[in-house]
Amino acid sequence: MKRSRINEIMRAADEMIRRYGFVLPPFANWSPEEFKARKDASAIVTARCGWDITDYGQGRFDEMGLFLFTLRNGRLADLKRGGGMCYAEKLLISRQDQLSPMHTHVIKAEDIINRGGATLVVELYGSDDQGNFAWDRGGMVRCDGIDTPYGPGTRLKLAPGESVTLMPGDWHAFWGEGGDVLIGEVSTVNDDLTDNIFREPIGRFAEIEEDEAPWHLLVSDYDRWLQ
Description:
InterPro entries: D-lyxose_isomer, EcSI_cupin, RmlC-like_jellyroll. By secondary structure, the protein is of the alpha+beta class. It is built from five helices and twelve strands. The strands form two sheets. Strands 1, 2, 3, 4, 5, 6, 9, 10, 11 and 12 form a ten-stranded antiparallel sheet that branches. Strands 7-8 form a two-stranded antiparallel sheet. The two termini are 23 Å apart.
């Protein structure tokens, strides 16, 4: 993705988030230079909080892509010992007919919440006995507190305010139907480097062409820009 396109997506996302009554935390507004100058930002960097825009390495963001902002993220060590900061929270934007491709998680359980906009479609499949994607299996999810069985290929349609709880092994893809959707994600500790298992061999992060300066850094920029 070109950096100019990423900057454009950031600005549009910030406007949409504000339109629905959310305001991003102060570190969202730091310039790259300010971020590099901060001596107190190590926890943000370590938790990989911040801006995240991906085309899954496919170069077709409008068709397959996702905007994310990680607001807070806990510690895997706390999760392993069973106490402490074991949670994470994100905001996402899924555009109309923009696919977030079929995937699951090994560790993370997550609530996916339609925070505003159009309808969020979540397509579901179950796992086989080894946790692999299974065309012929369904499972059970919780929709706004109600345990709900699903068959292979079930498409949940979530209106604003509605949500689904997905557990490890629930394979899912999602997209906006009828317009763009602001999504909330509340989950156990998030690890985007190792805990996204895609059905197809695709990447989690975009490859960036630096055609202009970044407006804000992406989490995938931290290792390179904040040395």
